[in-house]
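Task 17 of the worksheet. Students: predict the tertiary structure of the chain below and write it out as structure tokens. Keep your answer in the requested format; marks are given for formatting as well as content.
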Amino acid sequence: MRQITVTPNVLKGCDNMNDHLYVDEIFGPTIQGEGDFVGKPCYFIRLNGCDQNPPCKWCDTMKSYSRRNESLISIEDIIKHIDSLSDELDLFVNRFVITGGNPCAQDCSTLIDTLKKCYSSEPYYTDCEVNIETQGTQFPKWLDDVDYVVVSPKPPSSSKDNIGQDITNLINYCKRASSRDHLMEIKVVIFNEDDMQYAIDVFVTTFNAIHGNTGFSNIHYTLQLGTSMNAIDSVYSVDDIFAAIKKSSCRIPRMLVKDMRVLPQVHNILKVR
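Model answer:
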């Protein structure tokens, strides 16, 4: 797999800054390592700039935390970078994951529209699919044009104060997505018991806010076993997860338990980007 490090673009005669984004790197084709589409081939477009303050203790993309002026490039150059990567293997991959940092801290509407126009015709055979990965501090209107939104609110182990991220904005977005039958995923990385209890609280609160205890859910729920050990003493196990679910079974809707999935961080296990 070849990787291109994005270089600065000289901006001349640019009147609309929405046609440019702060980009840390573009790489692929590779596989999605987490969540619903784990193992699926895709390209990653990693934006820089994150509004999680302070940054997560175990953040594995700290180089993308701060927005850097020299990383501002045009949508046109982003497409050129993707084309240069796809030409090497000619695999016709047209699933794109926009991640960060926090991509919702920038206006990605032009990028999304351009990707769909460029990668939905032959020889791709299927429509281009754009996924967004965000921690859920803000939910701009352009998310409605994304095929799949993955929200990963940060659990207590991410914070020096051991306090999980507030989910008020997430609850409101779940209602918005549900009203449009828009599929989304809530994914919580689990390192310890506090994280697990936080995940249960997030799952139950969002599920009940939209669906009550019965009915179809447009939300997929993922418990992601953390495998990066930057600042964590112990790794949570599958047995620990089931013990916690059993302990909290009186407040977890059965439909929610049925929809939950437990996954490792496959990209770390396979040692791929």
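Marker's comment: The helical segments are 75-89, 109-118, 168-179, 193-210, 238-247, 254-259, 266-270. The chain has one domain: 3-270.
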